[in-house]
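Hi R.,

Here are the chain sequences for the assembly we discussed:
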Amino acid sequence: MHKRVVFNNRVLPYLLLAPQILVTLVFFFWPAGQAIYQSAYIPDPFGLSSQFVGFGNFEFLLSDRYYLASFKTTVIFSTLVTVLSMGAALWLAVMADRVIKGSSAYKTLLVWPYAVAPAVAGVLWLFMFNPNVGLVAWYLKAMGYDWNHVLNDGEAMGLVVVASAWRQISYNFLFFLAGLQAIPKSVIEAAAIDGASFARRFWTIVFPLLSPTTFFLLVVNIVYAFFETFGVIHTITAGGPQQATTILVYKVFSDGFVGQDLGSSAAQSVILLFVVGLLTVVQFRYIERKVHY
Amino acid sequence: MAEIALSNVRKSYGPTEVIHGVDAEIADGELIVIVGPSGCGKSTLLRMVAGLETITSGEISIGGRVVNDLEPRERDIAMVFQNYALYPHMSVFANMAYGLKIAGVPKAEIAERVGQAAKMLELEPYLDRKPRQLSGGQRQRVAMGRAIVRKPSVFLFDEPLSNLDAKLRVQMRVEIKTLQRRLAVTSLYVTHDQVEAMTMADRIIVMNGGNAEQVGTPLSVYNKPATVFVGGFIGSPPMNFLQAARLQASGLLRKVAATAGPAEALDTVGVRPEHLSFCEEGAAVLSGKLVIAEALGAETLAHVELDDGERMIVRVDGGREVPAAGARVHLSCGAEHLHYFGADGKRLPD
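And here is the predicted structure of the full complex:
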């Protein structure tokens, strides 16, 4: 029998937990509380006084067609970003997993984009696709396609999706590759001997065994698409044209800090908080059941 | 039904050659055990037959068809892996049915064939379970079942018993052998355990350092090891070896025919532990001190340190009296039981 070590000091456990609790309190509970508090008020245009309106901000938002449009934009945007970044990453990981010579070089290069900050990534893509000076836009024009994401909302959406997904591919790639390498080689060899082609092996053996990784990345990527893509959208389209790329988190910013409607902005944050919370619960409750650990 | 032929099979990883030209003919329905120490290339050789490793040069054919460039699935083989390699997310039934499903076998026939195999392997109560809910022995059976249901023309076994405990290993050894007899499917079985090799094989291929040192029936390999390595590897406890010069004075050594070169000159003499016996000083061929005696019940293994420090093992019947540890002992041996090896380690002609 080994003895359990017991500390009799009553204060020590709290002291040890304090930094983590403090960080959570200051950077999560306090702002969240502030948002909930502010969402019940409308400040005057000069920010000198505010008036209590209860759920007024929420009522207004839910009947505002721009806000509802932003909801739809967010759903489309997050779905596209998640599918694109995970799909591309999985494909790259499967390919990199097959490479034997120089595999570490491939892996290193594929991970690099993750080191690029979202805003910088946005600027990179902006320069490539700028309708006036962008190289890619220029080539597209030379080929007869008149690229202009400043005016065309579909092109704008496409560009922010690709720019957002591009950065996340590296992150997903790392996890997928680690997941692939954790699958025992002999299981795949057994399937090969059982007569399964490469594609069949992938869909019946590899993909199901990868599902814990896929599920984890799904949660992470949706959260990424909801929040962290702000920098990309801000630098490339600033939510335009005609609010075509204004996702919820961008609308929080533009209504609150540009439009100076802090009450509405706070109400939007609260809604966003609940949406993401709900999404995560749904993912864990329903999708996780199909995951084989 | 198929016979397997290996002809001058070689394998290199970059500039390093790991298999240096193996030749073997395996008859239809035969169970061949490839045995050797770890790193001797036995698993690589099996994986080349399976199609999981490329063949650098030489030729492997199964049932008269050269399979060098065929994918594993085109070779009509089934393989049982050391770690079983069951599909962890599938039930036992799905594991066994996987290959049939891919082959497009009708559902009813899949159920029938899997059912038959499950019955034969006593797996029926477990068909709905996942591999992780099974014991090691049961997983082993599922792996066997997965191989059987496909009715392949060749079975390949890659150390299938090494993850089982000693008792289960003995039991599964018999089961695999019985099953193989009953199905009469040509089988290649890789192991590092010489007991498995001796008990299961129709013929043994002893490998060492990428070479097939000897191919033959278990008893012929035991009785006439082709090299010093084979003599030491097959048999437990291993064969004792002595410099031939040590026995020169005893008059036991037979005349060895004059040979072409120094490599073939008599160098080492081997003798099995059961062919040594204790005797009076006058009749002694070798003398030394008994270091320790291991009584195993049916037999006793006496470790003897000769006067020059070399160690010999003597196997004595369990009922026989063995001198006490530390006692001076004398050993004798029949001349007909000596094995003669040249300086190159090869057996000299009888």
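The mean pLDDT of chain A is 85. Strands of chain A lie at 41-43, 50-52.

Let me know if anything looks off.

Best,
T.
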